[in-house]
Amino acid sequence: MQTNSEQQHLVNKTFDEIAIGDSASLTRTLMPEDVKLFAVLTGEFNPAVVDPQYSQSGMFREVIAHGMWSNSLISTVLGTQFPGPGTILIDQSLHFARPVTIGDVITINLTVKQKFQHNRHVLFDCVCTNQEGLQVVSGTAEVLAPSEKVSYVRQTHMPEVHVDDKMERFNQMLLRVKGLEPIPTAVAHPCDHESLKGPVMAFQAGIIEPILVGPESKIRAVAEEFSLDLSGIRIVNAAHSHDSAALAVSLVRAGDAEALMKGSLHTDELMGEVISRANGLRTNRRISHVFLMSVPTYHRPLLITDAAINIAPSLEEKVDIIQNAIDLAHIIGIPEPKVAILSAVETVNPKIESTLHAAALCKMADRGQITGGILDGPLAFDNAVSIVAAKTKGIKSAVAGHAEILVVPDLESGNMVAKQLEYLANALTAGIVLGTRVPIVLTSRADTAETRTASCVIAVLIAHANRKKASA
């Protein structure tokens, strides 16, 4: 496979320089992103080549390349290698012998078969074989060969192309709870489109059993307006948003629900009922929030805490915030999460409180006051997520460049980091409240139904972990 740097200097062969029997070759491996990019560029969204589930029931039982993908590689050889710049394709005839599947290594061989002096046409035999030496494509290509010598140094920068399928990441998130029993979830005041669509989507995906708590007439009106099917979903009538929050929390306390979900009401209304000492859902842990983010440009899941509940947490409160996040990391399959305690700098500075907190928290982890993760800090954001930045600054750390939990100094900085990743880096986001009797799906009123559904996945994983703990 040729890289961009290998293709910078292109030298062609003119018609007079070409001899019968001359040949050229190119080898490429079919990657999943190749299939997606080809579909996007051509508009050919044949389910046999872009839909893995459909492909399983098709003739070949797996995803295959578009037929013209192999043909495009023949054009690549003709236009860049042999004859090279100045070549014009005139005619082509191909036979597709067998499919090309993901991971196949395809070698394209072009050999000069005939030359036509009167019009400077050249006829090539074209054979494409896979890693087993089996023909996948064969045929001929007739080209108008260059008449003038060209030595071309490419000046135009070709941008790198990254395929980011957010819906695929969303579907992968849903697979985390495949086979798990749906969790009864009290949804407080789902009275707008997205806040109602989220639990309905989660219900239809078999993730939760929603109990919609709010003004029934309003909920049904929203469902009718946006064609949302409420069949099989229980509705508990409430007078207004505050009443919805109180009733939803009472359903959890009564054991009717194992998770709580915010609808279209304000966070303060719901959390006011949650933290009530008389009728709330407190435990001996500090309540905190975690954003779980799948960022396409980062190689690990990211848990950001706390960006929604604790405004300016103390050192003592950060101990619980970190422990809550570590416990969640264990539940989602990270056995020993790497915890970066963020600040503006990576050295301890008595004038910056967050650096003092970071140093103390790391020592507390050394002494077993925080368990289950590897802590380091203070770390600036770049050092936490970029090994290059960490090495440049001479930071030697098991956490730097590989952080899975980002502990922010305060709510403002955490909220900014999380929202920037969501809106500028296309992160798939889930929001969950920890340190309460049950997991609480807490998302912004601006969040999509997909974000709410992804958050339900995390809530279900926590609820099932709670069940195991209770039965142990």
Structural features:
alpha/beta; 35% helix; 11-stranded mixed sheet; 472 residues
Q: What structural class is derived from the secondary structure elements?
A: alpha/beta
**Oligomeric state of the chains in view:** single chain
Given as residue ranges, the uncertain stretches (5+ residues, pLDDT < 50) are 1-7, 54-61
The best one-word shape is elongated
Q: What is the count of β-strands? A: 18
Describe the structure concisely:
The protein is α/β, with parallel strands linked by helices and 472 residues long. It has helices spanning 32-42, 47-50, 52-56, 67-80, 166-174, 193-204, 216-225, 241-253, 267-274, 315-331, 353-366, 381-385, 387-392, 411-424, 449-471, and strands at 9-11, 23-29, 88-96, 105-116, 121-129, 135-144, 151-153, 183-188, 208-214, 234-237, 259-262, 288-294, 302-305, 338-342, 374-379, 405-407, 428-434, 440-441.
Describe the structure.
With 472 residues, the chain is an alpha/beta fold. It contains 15 helices and 18 strands. The chain has helices at 32-42, 47-50, 52-56, 67-80, 166-174, 193-204, 216-225, 241-253, 267-274, 315-331, 353-366, 381-385, 387-392, 411-424, 449-471, and strands at residues 9-11, 23-29, 88-96, 105-116, 121-129, 135-144, 151-153, 183-188, 208-214, 234-237, 259-262, 288-294, 302-305, 338-342, 374-379, 405-407, 428-434, 440-441. It has an eleven-stranded mixed beta sheet with strand order 10-9-8-11-18-17-12-13-16-14-15, with helices on both faces. It has a five-stranded antiparallel beta sheet with strand order 2-4-5-6-3, with helices on one face. Strand 4 and strand 5 form a beta hairpin. Helix 6 (193-204) crosses helix 15 and helix 8 (241-253) runs parallel beside helix 9. The model is unreliable at 1-7 and 54-61 (pLDDT under 50).
